[in-house]
Amino acid sequence: MGATYRALCRHGFAALTMQHIADESSRSKAALHYHYETKHDLLVAFLEYLAQRFEARLLGVDAVDPEEQLFSLVDVLLDPSDRADDREFRTAMLELRAQAPYDDDYRQRLAEIDRFARERIRETIANGIDCGVFRADVDPTETATFVVTVASGAITRRVTLDAADPPIAAARRAIRAHVESHLLGAEGEVRTE
Amino acid sequence: MGATYRALCRHGFAALTMQHIADESSRSKAALHYHYETKHDLLVAFLEYLAQRFEARLLGVDAVDPEEQLFSLVDVLLDPSDRADDREFRTAMLELRAQAPYDDDYRQRLAEIDRFARERIRETIANGIDCGVFRADVDPTETATFVVTVASGAITRRVTLDAADPPIAAARRAIRAHVESHLLGAEGEVRTE
Protein backbone atom coordinates (compact mmCIF):
# COMPACT_ATOMS: atom_id res chain seq x y z
CA MET A 1 0.00 0.00 0.00
CA GLY A 2 2.93 2.31 0.75
CA ALA A 3 4.41 1.46 -2.65
CA THR A 4 1.08 2.25 -4.32
CA TYR A 5 0.99 5.59 -2.52
CA ARG A 6 4.53 6.46 -3.65
CA ALA A 7 3.91 5.27 -7.23
CA LEU A 8 0.71 7.38 -7.44
CA CYS A 9 2.59 10.45 -6.20
CA ARG A 10 5.40 9.88 -8.69
CA HIS A 11 3.46 8.88 -11.82
CA GLY A 12 -0.12 10.06 -11.25
CA PHE A 13 -3.14 7.86 -11.75
CA ALA A 14 -3.45 7.76 -15.56
CA ALA A 15 0.13 6.66 -16.25
CA LEU A 16 0.36 4.24 -13.29
CA THR A 17 1.43 0.66 -14.07
CA MET A 18 1.95 -2.44 -11.94
CA GLN A 19 5.66 -2.10 -12.77
CA HIS A 20 5.73 1.39 -11.19
CA ILE A 21 4.22 -0.01 -8.01
CA ALA A 22 6.64 -2.95 -7.98
CA ASP A 23 9.52 -0.47 -8.45
CA GLU A 24 8.49 1.31 -5.25
CA SER A 25 8.27 -1.94 -3.27
CA SER A 26 10.53 -4.83 -2.42
CA ARG A 27 8.32 -7.18 -4.47
CA SER A 28 8.48 -8.16 -8.11
CA LYS A 29 5.72 -7.32 -10.55
CA ALA A 30 4.93 -11.06 -10.68
CA ALA A 31 4.50 -11.13 -6.89
CA LEU A 32 2.11 -8.17 -7.11
CA HIS A 33 0.10 -9.95 -9.78
CA TYR A 34 -0.11 -13.00 -7.50
CA HIS A 35 -2.12 -10.87 -5.03
CA TYR A 36 -3.88 -8.49 -7.42
CA GLU A 37 -4.85 -9.66 -10.86
CA THR A 38 -5.05 -6.16 -12.33
CA LYS A 39 -4.08 -2.58 -11.54
CA HIS A 40 -7.79 -1.96 -10.99
CA ASP A 41 -7.94 -4.66 -8.27
CA LEU A 42 -4.89 -3.23 -6.56
CA LEU A 43 -6.35 0.28 -6.64
CA VAL A 44 -9.63 -0.95 -5.17
CA ALA A 45 -7.63 -2.54 -2.32
CA PHE A 46 -5.72 0.74 -1.97
CA LEU A 47 -8.99 2.70 -1.72
CA GLU A 48 -10.18 0.30 0.97
CA TYR A 49 -6.93 0.84 2.84
CA LEU A 50 -7.35 4.64 2.54
CA ALA A 51 -10.97 4.38 3.70
CA GLN A 52 -9.88 2.43 6.80
CA ARG A 53 -7.16 4.94 7.66
CA PHE A 54 -9.48 7.89 7.05
CA GLU A 55 -12.23 6.31 9.16
CA ALA A 56 -9.72 5.57 11.91
CA ARG A 57 -8.61 9.22 11.88
CA LEU A 58 -12.24 10.41 12.05
CA LEU A 59 -12.98 7.97 14.89
CA GLY A 60 -9.79 9.07 16.65
CA VAL A 61 -11.23 12.57 17.01
CA ASP A 62 -12.80 12.41 20.43
CA ALA A 63 -13.25 15.81 22.05
CA VAL A 64 -15.68 16.47 24.90
CA ASP A 65 -16.85 19.76 23.41
CA PRO A 66 -19.02 19.26 20.26
CA GLU A 67 -17.73 22.47 18.67
CA GLU A 68 -14.10 21.40 19.13
CA GLN A 69 -15.02 17.92 17.88
CA LEU A 70 -16.60 19.39 14.76
CA PHE A 71 -13.59 21.56 13.91
CA SER A 72 -11.23 18.62 14.46
CA LEU A 73 -13.30 16.52 12.02
CA VAL A 74 -13.09 19.40 9.52
CA ASP A 75 -9.30 19.36 9.90
CA VAL A 76 -9.24 15.66 9.05
CA LEU A 77 -11.39 16.32 5.95
CA LEU A 78 -9.21 19.18 4.76
CA ASP A 79 -5.97 17.34 5.36
CA PRO A 80 -6.63 13.73 4.43
CA SER A 81 -2.96 12.82 4.45
CA ASP A 82 -0.45 12.87 7.28
CA ARG A 83 2.19 14.20 4.91
CA ALA A 84 2.94 17.84 4.29
CA ASP A 85 3.77 17.48 0.58
CA ASP A 86 0.61 15.63 -0.39
CA ARG A 87 -0.28 17.66 -3.46
CA GLU A 88 0.78 14.87 -5.84
CA PHE A 89 -1.31 12.42 -3.89
CA ARG A 90 -4.39 14.63 -3.91
CA THR A 91 -3.94 15.06 -7.63
CA ALA A 92 -3.85 11.29 -8.16
CA MET A 93 -6.94 10.95 -5.96
CA LEU A 94 -8.81 13.55 -8.02
CA GLU A 95 -7.90 11.60 -11.16
CA LEU A 96 -9.26 8.47 -9.51
CA ARG A 97 -12.44 10.31 -8.44
CA ALA A 98 -12.90 11.46 -12.03
CA GLN A 99 -12.86 7.77 -13.05
CA ALA A 100 -15.60 6.87 -10.57
CA PRO A 101 -18.46 7.38 -13.06
CA TYR A 102 -16.87 4.69 -15.24
CA ASP A 103 -16.06 2.29 -12.41
CA ASP A 104 -18.57 0.90 -9.91
CA ASP A 105 -15.85 -0.38 -7.56
CA TYR A 106 -14.17 3.01 -7.24
CA ARG A 107 -17.52 4.76 -6.92
CA GLN A 108 -18.72 2.45 -4.14
CA ARG A 109 -15.55 2.97 -2.08
CA LEU A 110 -15.59 6.73 -2.58
CA ALA A 111 -19.28 6.87 -1.69
CA GLU A 112 -18.54 4.91 1.48
CA ILE A 113 -15.79 7.35 2.49
CA ASP A 114 -18.12 10.28 1.83
CA ARG A 115 -20.96 8.63 3.77
CA PHE A 116 -18.71 7.86 6.73
CA ALA A 117 -17.46 11.45 6.94
CA ARG A 118 -20.98 12.88 6.67
CA GLU A 119 -22.31 10.46 9.29
CA ARG A 120 -19.53 11.28 11.77
CA ILE A 121 -20.19 15.02 11.34
CA ARG A 122 -23.97 14.58 11.50
CA GLU A 123 -23.61 12.63 14.75
CA THR A 124 -21.36 15.33 16.24
CA ILE A 125 -23.87 18.04 15.38
CA ALA A 126 -26.77 15.96 16.72
CA ASN A 127 -24.83 15.46 19.98
CA GLY A 128 -24.15 19.19 20.13
CA ILE A 129 -27.88 19.87 19.79
CA ASP A 130 -28.73 17.29 22.46
CA CYS A 131 -26.40 18.87 24.99
CA GLY A 132 -27.53 22.41 24.18
CA VAL A 133 -24.32 23.66 22.57
CA PHE A 134 -25.82 23.90 19.08
CA ARG A 135 -29.17 25.41 18.21
CA ALA A 136 -32.15 23.08 18.16
CA ASP A 137 -33.32 24.30 14.74
CA VAL A 138 -30.14 23.11 13.00
CA ASP A 139 -30.51 20.25 10.50
CA PRO A 140 -27.56 17.93 11.26
CA THR A 141 -27.80 16.07 7.92
CA GLU A 142 -27.93 19.22 5.83
CA THR A 143 -25.08 20.83 7.76
CA ALA A 144 -22.91 17.71 7.42
CA THR A 145 -23.46 17.74 3.65
CA PHE A 146 -22.53 21.43 3.56
CA VAL A 147 -19.27 20.75 5.41
CA VAL A 148 -18.15 17.90 3.14
CA THR A 149 -19.13 19.94 0.06
CA VAL A 150 -16.97 22.90 1.12
CA ALA A 151 -14.08 20.54 1.91
CA SER A 152 -14.43 18.77 -1.43
CA GLY A 153 -14.52 22.08 -3.31
CA ALA A 154 -11.47 23.39 -1.49
CA ILE A 155 -9.46 20.27 -2.31
CA THR A 156 -10.55 20.27 -5.97
CA ARG A 157 -9.68 23.97 -6.32
CA ARG A 158 -6.34 23.50 -4.61
CA VAL A 159 -5.35 20.65 -6.93
CA THR A 160 -6.67 22.32 -10.08
CA LEU A 161 -5.51 25.88 -9.58
CA ASP A 162 -2.10 25.45 -8.01
CA ALA A 163 -3.18 27.97 -5.40
CA ALA A 164 -1.21 26.34 -2.57
CA ASP A 165 -2.99 26.75 0.77
CA PRO A 166 -5.50 29.60 0.30
CA PRO A 167 -8.50 27.46 -0.77
CA ILE A 168 -7.97 25.19 2.25
CA ALA A 169 -7.59 28.09 4.68
CA ALA A 170 -10.61 29.85 3.13
CA ALA A 171 -12.70 26.68 3.53
CA ARG A 172 -11.73 26.44 7.20
CA ARG A 173 -12.77 30.07 7.75
CA ALA A 174 -16.05 29.60 5.84
CA ILE A 175 -17.02 26.54 7.87
CA ARG A 176 -16.08 28.32 11.11
CA ALA A 177 -18.22 31.34 10.11
CA HIS A 178 -21.12 29.02 9.26
CA VAL A 179 -20.87 27.24 12.61
CA GLU A 180 -20.70 30.53 14.49
CA SER A 181 -23.70 32.08 12.78
CA HIS A 182 -25.92 29.03 12.20
CA LEU A 183 -25.06 26.49 14.87
CA LEU A 184 -24.02 28.58 17.84
CA GLY A 185 -26.62 31.22 17.07
CA ALA A 186 -26.65 34.99 17.30
CA GLU A 187 -28.31 37.09 19.99
CA GLY A 188 -32.06 36.81 19.89
CA GLU A 189 -31.89 33.31 18.41
CA VAL A 190 -33.56 30.39 20.13
CA ARG A 191 -31.16 28.14 22.02
CA THR A 192 -31.99 24.84 23.63
CA GLU A 193 -30.53 25.57 27.04
CA MET B 1 -16.11 22.51 -30.81
CA GLY B 2 -19.52 20.81 -30.87
CA ALA B 3 -17.84 17.63 -32.08
CA THR B 4 -15.31 17.86 -29.24
CA TYR B 5 -18.16 18.28 -26.75
CA ARG B 6 -19.98 15.22 -28.13
CA ALA B 7 -16.81 13.12 -28.28
CA LEU B 8 -15.95 14.02 -24.65
CA CYS B 9 -19.45 13.02 -23.53
CA ARG B 10 -19.26 9.74 -25.41
CA HIS B 11 -15.69 8.63 -24.68
CA GLY B 12 -14.57 10.63 -21.63
CA PHE B 13 -11.33 12.53 -21.46
CA ALA B 14 -8.77 9.75 -20.95
CA ALA B 15 -9.84 7.63 -23.92
CA LEU B 16 -10.49 10.56 -26.28
CA THR B 17 -8.72 10.49 -29.65
CA MET B 18 -8.66 12.85 -32.63
CA GLN B 19 -10.49 10.11 -34.53
CA HIS B 20 -13.37 10.22 -32.01
CA ILE B 21 -13.68 13.97 -32.53
CA ALA B 22 -13.52 13.59 -36.32
CA ASP B 23 -16.24 10.90 -36.09
CA GLU B 24 -18.55 13.42 -34.39
CA SER B 25 -17.88 16.10 -37.02
CA SER B 26 -18.17 16.45 -40.78
CA ARG B 27 -14.36 16.76 -41.05
CA SER B 28 -11.73 14.11 -41.52
CA LYS B 29 -9.08 13.42 -38.91
CA ALA B 30 -6.52 14.90 -41.35
CA ALA B 31 -8.55 18.13 -41.55
CA LEU B 32 -8.61 18.33 -37.75
CA HIS B 33 -4.86 17.86 -37.63
CA TYR B 34 -4.49 20.70 -40.12
CA HIS B 35 -5.98 23.07 -37.51
CA TYR B 36 -4.77 21.40 -34.32
CA GLU B 37 -1.47 19.58 -34.27
CA THR B 38 -2.34 17.45 -31.23
CA LYS B 39 -5.30 16.44 -29.11
CA HIS B 40 -3.82 18.66 -26.42
CA ASP B 41 -3.93 21.72 -28.73
CA LEU B 42 -7.52 20.99 -29.65
CA LEU B 43 -8.52 20.61 -26.00
CA VAL B 44 -6.82 23.91 -25.12
CA ALA B 45 -8.87 25.58 -27.88
CA PHE B 46 -11.96 23.81 -26.53
CA LEU B 47 -11.26 25.14 -23.02
CA GLU B 48 -10.92 28.65 -24.45
CA TYR B 49 -14.25 28.20 -26.22
CA LEU B 50 -15.86 27.01 -22.96
CA ALA B 51 -14.32 29.94 -21.07
CA GLN B 52 -15.79 32.39 -23.59
CA ARG B 53 -19.25 30.84 -23.38
CA PHE B 54 -19.12 30.69 -19.59
CA GLU B 55 -17.95 34.30 -19.38
CA ALA B 56 -20.71 35.36 -21.78
CA ARG B 57 -23.28 33.60 -19.59
CA LEU B 58 -21.92 35.31 -16.46
CA LEU B 59 -21.91 38.69 -18.23
CA GLY B 60 -25.43 38.03 -19.49
CA VAL B 61 -26.70 38.00 -15.91
CA ASP B 62 -27.76 41.60 -15.44
CA ALA B 63 -30.31 42.06 -12.68
CA VAL B 64 -30.98 45.38 -11.00
CA ASP B 65 -31.16 43.84 -7.52
CA PRO B 66 -27.71 42.68 -6.27
CA GLU B 67 -29.21 39.75 -4.35
CA GLU B 68 -31.04 38.51 -7.45
CA GLN B 69 -27.88 39.08 -9.50
CA LEU B 70 -25.84 37.02 -7.05
CA PHE B 71 -28.24 34.05 -7.09
CA SER B 72 -28.38 34.14 -10.89
CA LEU B 73 -24.56 33.97 -11.01
CA VAL B 74 -24.70 31.00 -8.62
CA ASP B 75 -27.14 29.30 -11.00
CA VAL B 76 -24.66 29.73 -13.84
CA LEU B 77 -21.87 28.25 -11.69
CA LEU B 78 -23.94 25.26 -10.65
CA ASP B 79 -25.20 24.56 -14.14
CA PRO B 80 -22.30 25.31 -16.46
CA SER B 81 -23.94 23.63 -19.43
CA ASP B 82 -27.15 24.49 -21.24
CA ARG B 83 -27.97 20.82 -21.53
CA ALA B 84 -30.00 18.81 -19.08
CA ASP B 85 -28.04 15.56 -19.48
CA ASP B 86 -24.63 17.05 -18.87
CA ARG B 87 -23.31 14.48 -16.42
CA GLU B 88 -20.98 12.91 -19.01
CA PHE B 89 -19.64 16.31 -19.86
CA ARG B 90 -19.03 17.27 -16.22
CA THR B 91 -17.24 13.98 -15.76
CA ALA B 92 -14.95 14.68 -18.72
CA MET B 93 -14.31 18.17 -17.34
CA LEU B 94 -13.37 16.74 -13.94
CA GLU B 95 -10.93 14.40 -15.70
CA LEU B 96 -9.48 17.39 -17.48
CA ARG B 97 -9.25 19.37 -14.22
CA ALA B 98 -7.40 16.45 -12.65
CA GLN B 99 -4.83 16.75 -15.47
CA ALA B 100 -4.26 20.46 -14.77
CA PRO B 101 -1.36 19.88 -12.35
CA TYR B 102 0.49 18.14 -15.20
CA ASP B 103 -0.42 20.67 -17.88
CA ASP B 104 0.28 24.41 -17.70
CA ASP B 105 -2.05 25.20 -20.62
CA TYR B 106 -5.06 23.50 -19.02
CA ARG B 107 -4.23 25.01 -15.64
CA GLN B 108 -3.98 28.55 -17.02
CA ARG B 109 -7.37 28.29 -18.77
CA LEU B 110 -9.07 26.76 -15.74
CA ALA B 111 -7.54 29.40 -13.47
CA GLU B 112 -8.83 32.10 -15.80
CA ILE B 113 -12.37 30.66 -15.68
CA ASP B 114 -12.18 30.48 -11.87
CA ARG B 115 -10.82 34.04 -11.65
CA PHE B 116 -13.52 35.40 -13.95
CA ALA B 117 -16.31 33.78 -11.91
CA ARG B 118 -14.86 35.01 -8.62
CA GLU B 119 -14.38 38.53 -9.99
CA ARG B 120 -17.95 38.73 -11.30
CA ILE B 121 -19.31 37.60 -7.92
CA ARG B 122 -16.97 39.89 -5.98
CA GLU B 123 -18.11 42.84 -8.08
CA THR B 124 -21.79 41.99 -7.50
CA ILE B 125 -21.24 41.82 -3.74
CA ALA B 126 -19.26 45.07 -3.74
CA ASN B 127 -22.10 46.76 -5.68
CA GLY B 128 -24.58 45.36 -3.18
CA ILE B 129 -22.57 46.88 -0.34
CA ASP B 130 -22.30 50.23 -2.14
CA CYS B 131 -26.05 50.49 -2.59
CA GLY B 132 -26.78 49.35 0.97
CA VAL B 133 -28.38 45.98 0.18
CA PHE B 134 -25.50 43.96 1.65
CA ARG B 135 -23.83 44.61 4.97
CA ALA B 136 -20.79 46.90 4.97
CA ASP B 137 -18.69 44.44 7.00
CA VAL B 138 -18.86 41.73 4.31
CA ASP B 139 -15.60 40.87 2.58
CA PRO B 140 -16.52 40.58 -1.13
CA THR B 141 -13.34 38.67 -2.10
CA GLU B 142 -13.69 36.12 0.69
CA THR B 143 -17.40 35.62 0.00
CA ALA B 144 -16.77 35.16 -3.73
CA THR B 145 -14.18 32.47 -2.97
CA PHE B 146 -16.64 30.77 -0.63
CA VAL B 147 -19.32 30.68 -3.34
CA VAL B 148 -17.05 29.18 -6.03
CA THR B 149 -15.70 26.65 -3.49
CA VAL B 150 -19.19 25.42 -2.60
CA ALA B 151 -20.10 25.21 -6.30
CA SER B 152 -16.90 23.32 -7.11
CA GLY B 153 -17.47 20.87 -4.26
CA ALA B 154 -21.07 20.25 -5.28
CA ILE B 155 -20.07 19.51 -8.87
CA THR B 156 -17.20 17.21 -7.81
CA ARG B 157 -19.46 15.32 -5.40
CA ARG B 158 -22.21 15.03 -7.99
CA VAL B 159 -19.85 13.55 -10.59
CA THR B 160 -18.06 11.27 -8.13
CA LEU B 161 -20.94 9.95 -6.09
CA ASP B 162 -23.66 9.49 -8.67
CA ALA B 163 -25.99 11.34 -6.32
CA ALA B 164 -27.98 13.01 -9.12
CA ASP B 165 -29.22 16.44 -8.07
CA PRO B 166 -28.99 16.53 -4.25
CA PRO B 167 -25.43 17.98 -3.99
CA ILE B 168 -26.36 20.77 -6.40
CA ALA B 169 -29.62 21.58 -4.62
CA ALA B 170 -27.84 21.43 -1.24
CA ALA B 171 -25.17 23.84 -2.49
CA ARG B 172 -27.85 26.28 -3.65
CA ARG B 173 -29.52 26.15 -0.23
CA ALA B 174 -26.19 26.54 1.59
CA ILE B 175 -25.23 29.62 -0.44
CA ARG B 176 -28.70 31.10 0.06
CA ALA B 177 -28.44 30.53 3.84
CA HIS B 178 -25.00 32.13 3.86
CA VAL B 179 -26.23 35.17 1.94
CA GLU B 180 -29.23 35.55 4.24
CA SER B 181 -27.26 35.35 7.47
CA HIS B 182 -23.98 37.01 6.48
CA LEU B 183 -24.76 39.45 3.67
CA LEU B 184 -28.29 40.57 4.39
CA GLY B 185 -27.73 40.49 8.14
CA ALA B 186 -29.94 39.54 11.06
CA GLU B 187 -31.77 41.88 13.40
CA GLY B 188 -29.38 43.88 15.49
CA GLU B 189 -26.67 43.72 12.83
CA VAL B 190 -25.18 46.86 11.38
CA ARG B 191 -26.52 47.73 7.94
CA THR B 192 -25.21 50.44 5.66
CA GLU B 193 -28.52 52.10 4.99
What does this structure look like?
Two copies of one chain form a homodimer. Chain A is mostly helical and 193 residues long. In chain A, 72% of the residues lie in helices and 0% in strands. In chain A, helix 1 packs across helix 2 and helix 4 packs parallel to helix 7.
Rg calculated over all Cα atoms of chain A: 19 Å
Distance between the termini of chain A: 48 Å
Strand content of chain A: under 5%
Q: Judging from the principal axes of the Cα atoms, what is the shape of chain A?
A: elongated
Mean pLDDT of chain A: 85
The chain pair forming the largest interface, with residue counts per chain, is: A-B, 48 and 48 residues
The structure class of chain A reads: mainly alpha
Counting copies of identical and different chains, the oligomeric state is homodimer
> Would you identify the regions of chain A where 5 or more consecutive residues have pLDDT less than 50?
187-193
Number of helical elements of chain A: 9
Largest sheet of chain A: none
Question: How many runs of DSSP E, i.e. beta strands of chain A?
Answer: 0
Helix amount of chain A: over 70%
Helix and strand sequence of chain A: HHHHHHHHH
